[in-house]
Design brief:
By secondary structure, the protein is an alpha/beta fold. Helices cover 43% and strands 24% of the residues. Pfam families: SBP_bac_3 (PF00497).
Length: 274
């Protein structure tokens, strides 16, 4: 009987030791994850560079001018955030369709690219608080009376940006004849004019900017209907809380001191932070 008790005692000791070791292992992983999120901010501070991922054909948020220089609302905002953090912004252009994967793989530290905050994206990355409210709109060719609202998209050919929320928005219209996906907004607007599309669904600031700059702007018609409200946010790797907090704090300070109001007026023609 004593021998049996001794065996039970040894067995229980082994089990307890295993449980304790497993607990320590779990705690170690948590610590490593926390350290990983801390390292991004430390890396930025030590290197003096904040690497920003963006898609560079999304005016007025971000685009290249005739001299191939990056410009736009997000560019000015990112530069202001970096400067106040005591570092410089380095912009890394990436196709929008792969920008989330590029962030997760460590190609850059954050996404500042007019990105709408969606439930699907929140499963993959974290976001700051919204910094711009965005809407999806419908653009048609002037004189096309067959599309007066979203109800008229049934049986039509509709252009959207590949990997954008426009692509998701049109999914709720079940009877669209064809959805064509484009890497560049300029390409879908051009196809609209030459008759390959009946309508384009696009982010409001982008669509209106391209139309305002076009020498054929009278040939476009922007419908008054807004299909969805989509707040834009700054994207971070999951768990990168220290960098996220630092960037958010910096943005809030820029908003308070009037810097964001100046940037807004420059690119939108109004102060959206009043």
């Amino acid at each position: 009987m004593k021998k049996f008790k001794k065996i039970i005692t040894i067995g229980l000791s082994v089990i307890c030791t295993a449980v304790l070791l497993a607990g320590c292992g779990g705690s170690g992983n948590t610590s490593q994850n926390g350290q990983g999120s801390q390292d991004t901010l430390e890396k930025v501070k030590k290197s003096g560079v904040l690497k920003v991922g963006l898609e560079d054909s999304f005016p007025p948020m971000e685009f290249r001018d005739s001299q191939n220089k990056l410009q736009g609302f997000d560019i000015d905002m990112a530069n202001a955030i970096a400067k106040k953090m005591g570092v410089k912004a380095q912009f890394i252009s990436t196709e929008f369709n792969g920008i989330v994967l590029a962030l997760k793989s460590g190609k850059f530290d954050t996404i500042i690219s007019g990105m709408s905050i969606t439930d699907d994206r929140k499963k993959q990355i974290d976001f700051s608080k919204p910094y711009v409210e965005n809407y999806q709109i419908i653009v048609t060719k002037s004189g096309n009376s067959s599309v007066k609202s979203s109800k008229d998209l049934d049986g039509k050919r509709v252009g959207v940006g590949l990997g954008t929320t426009s692509e998701q928005v049109v999914k709720k219209f079940k009877n669209i004849k064809e959805v064509k996906k484009y890497d560049k907004t300029t390409e879908e607007l051009q196809d609209l004019l030459i008759g390959r599309l009946d309508a384009v669904v696009v982010d409001e600031p982008v669509g209106k900017y391209y139309i305002s700059k076009s020498n054929k702007k009278s040939q476009y018609n922007v419908l008054s209907e807004k299909l969805s409200k989509e707040p834009m946010g700054i994207g971070f790797k999951k768990g990168d809380k220290k960098l996220e907090a630092e960037v958010q704090k910096t943005f809030d300070e820029l908003k308070k001191d009037g810097t964001m109001s100046k940037i807004s007026t420059k690119w939108f023609g109004e102060d959206i932070y009043k």
